[in-house]
Amino acid sequence: MDELSEVADAVADPVRREILSLLRHTPLTAGEIAARFPVSRPAVSRHLRVLRESGLVRDEQIGRHRRYTLVATGLSTLATWLDQFDTRRPGWSQRLDALETEVHRARRDRTRAEPATASHPPGQETA
Questions:
Q1: Single pTM value for the model
Q2: Distance between CA atoms of 125 and 127, rounded to whole angstroms?
Q3: Are 15 and 47 in contact (CB under 8 A)?
C-alpha cells in the first residue's frame, strides 16, 4: 500500500481521528488515551498501532508506559492530495504569496510617499 493510501486508511476510522485530535494538543500515554474511549484497551492499542505504522504518531517507552506523539507531517501528503479538489479557495501558499505581495507594495508606496511628506511639513503649503 502506498503512503497516501495508508494515511487515508488510518484516518478513515473515527476513533483514530479522535486520537489524532487528542495528540494535537499534547503527547499522551496509551493509558491516558484509552481512558477517554468507551472501547477496550486492546482495541485502542490496535488503533495506536495502525496510526504508528502509517507514520501519523510515534511512540517512546518511558518506564512502564508508552507515550504517543502526533507526527503532523504524516498528514501533509493527504492534505496536499485533497487540496487539488478544493475549488472554493486557494491554498495557503497562494494566500501567503498574495499577502507578501501586498506587504511589499505597501512598503514601496510608503517609501515613495515619505520624501514628499518630509519636504512639506503639515500645515505649511508651498508657494
A1: 0.66
A2: 7
A3: yes
